[in-house]
Design brief:
Elements: E1 4-5, E2 10-11, H1 14-24, H2 26-29, H3 33-40, H4 42-46, H5 48-51, E3 54-61, E4 67-73, H6 76-97, E5 102-108
Parallel strand pairs: 4-5
Antiparallel strand pairs: 1-2, 3-4
Protein backbone atom coordinates (compact mmCIF):
# COMPACT_ATOMS: atom_id res chain seq x y z
CA UNK A 1 0.00 0.00 0.00
CA UNK A 2 1.51 3.28 -1.09
CA UNK A 3 0.99 6.02 1.46
CA UNK A 4 2.67 8.70 -0.62
CA UNK A 5 0.25 11.39 -1.73
CA UNK A 6 0.92 13.73 -4.60
CA UNK A 7 -1.29 16.53 -3.34
CA UNK A 8 0.52 16.91 0.00
CA UNK A 9 3.98 15.94 -1.25
CA UNK A 10 4.73 13.82 1.78
CA UNK A 11 3.76 10.77 3.78
CA UNK A 12 0.38 10.49 5.43
CA UNK A 13 0.04 10.21 9.16
CA UNK A 14 -0.75 6.65 10.33
CA UNK A 15 -3.89 7.94 12.09
CA UNK A 16 -5.20 9.32 8.81
CA UNK A 17 -4.61 6.02 7.00
CA UNK A 18 -6.48 4.08 9.68
CA UNK A 19 -9.31 6.61 9.77
CA UNK A 20 -9.72 6.48 5.97
CA UNK A 21 -9.74 2.67 6.02
CA UNK A 22 -12.31 2.42 8.81
CA UNK A 23 -14.58 5.12 7.38
CA UNK A 24 -14.67 3.38 3.99
CA UNK A 25 -15.76 0.14 5.65
CA UNK A 26 -18.40 1.62 7.99
CA UNK A 27 -21.26 0.46 5.78
CA UNK A 28 -20.00 -3.11 5.85
CA UNK A 29 -19.59 -3.16 9.63
CA UNK A 30 -22.84 -1.28 10.36
CA UNK A 31 -20.97 1.34 12.37
CA UNK A 32 -21.84 5.01 12.22
CA UNK A 33 -19.16 7.30 10.76
CA UNK A 34 -19.69 9.85 13.51
CA UNK A 35 -19.07 7.18 16.13
CA UNK A 36 -15.81 6.17 14.44
CA UNK A 37 -14.61 9.77 14.27
CA UNK A 38 -15.39 10.28 17.96
CA UNK A 39 -13.46 7.13 18.91
CA UNK A 40 -10.42 7.88 16.75
CA UNK A 41 -10.17 11.59 17.59
CA UNK A 42 -11.33 11.57 21.22
CA UNK A 43 -8.19 13.16 22.69
CA UNK A 44 -8.11 15.88 20.02
CA UNK A 45 -11.79 16.70 20.55
CA UNK A 46 -12.04 16.91 24.34
CA UNK A 47 -8.46 17.58 25.38
CA UNK A 48 -5.99 15.74 27.57
CA UNK A 49 -7.63 16.42 30.94
CA UNK A 50 -10.90 14.70 29.98
CA UNK A 51 -9.32 12.04 27.76
CA UNK A 52 -7.10 10.86 30.62
CA UNK A 53 -10.06 10.05 32.88
CA UNK A 54 -12.78 8.97 30.44
CA UNK A 55 -13.16 7.33 27.05
CA UNK A 56 -16.18 6.79 24.79
CA UNK A 57 -17.85 3.41 25.14
CA UNK A 58 -20.58 3.75 22.49
CA UNK A 59 -22.86 6.24 20.76
CA UNK A 60 -26.54 5.51 20.29
CA UNK A 61 -28.68 7.52 17.87
CA UNK A 62 -32.44 7.48 18.22
CA UNK A 63 -34.98 8.04 15.46
CA UNK A 64 -35.01 11.81 15.86
CA UNK A 65 -31.23 11.94 15.24
CA UNK A 66 -30.35 12.87 18.78
CA UNK A 67 -27.29 11.03 19.98
CA UNK A 68 -26.38 9.75 23.41
CA UNK A 69 -22.71 9.28 24.20
CA UNK A 70 -21.78 6.69 26.83
CA UNK A 71 -18.51 7.44 28.61
CA UNK A 72 -16.50 4.93 30.67
CA UNK A 73 -14.91 6.61 33.71
CA UNK A 74 -11.98 5.35 35.78
CA UNK A 75 -13.31 6.24 39.25
CA UNK A 76 -16.25 7.79 41.08
CA UNK A 77 -14.42 11.04 41.77
CA UNK A 78 -13.80 11.48 38.07
CA UNK A 79 -17.48 10.79 37.39
CA UNK A 80 -18.42 13.75 39.58
CA UNK A 81 -15.98 15.97 37.70
CA UNK A 82 -17.35 14.80 34.35
CA UNK A 83 -20.94 15.42 35.43
CA UNK A 84 -20.09 19.11 35.66
CA UNK A 85 -18.11 19.01 32.39
CA UNK A 86 -20.93 17.46 30.29
CA UNK A 87 -22.09 20.77 28.70
CA UNK A 88 -18.50 21.60 27.77
CA UNK A 89 -17.95 18.16 26.21
CA UNK A 90 -21.16 18.46 24.18
CA UNK A 91 -20.06 21.90 22.98
CA UNK A 92 -16.61 20.62 21.98
CA UNK A 93 -18.20 17.78 20.00
CA UNK A 94 -20.53 20.26 18.28
CA UNK A 95 -17.62 22.53 17.35
CA UNK A 96 -15.59 19.59 16.01
CA UNK A 97 -18.38 18.29 13.76
CA UNK A 98 -19.98 21.63 12.90
CA UNK A 99 -23.43 20.66 14.17
CA UNK A 100 -24.96 19.25 17.35
CA UNK A 101 -24.15 15.55 17.20
CA UNK A 102 -24.64 14.58 20.84
CA UNK A 103 -27.58 15.74 22.95
CA UNK A 104 -26.85 13.83 26.15
CA UNK A 105 -23.99 12.02 27.84
CA UNK A 106 -24.35 9.07 30.19
CA UNK A 107 -21.47 8.20 32.49
CA UNK A 108 -20.64 4.55 33.20
CA UNK A 109 -18.39 3.68 36.15
Amino acid sequence: MNVYTSRRRGYKNARLIIEDFVLRRCGLWSVNKIEVKIFLNWRAIVGDSVADIAFPKRVIFTGNSSGTLYLRVNSGGHATFLQYAVPCIIEKLSVYFGFKVINSIKIIQ
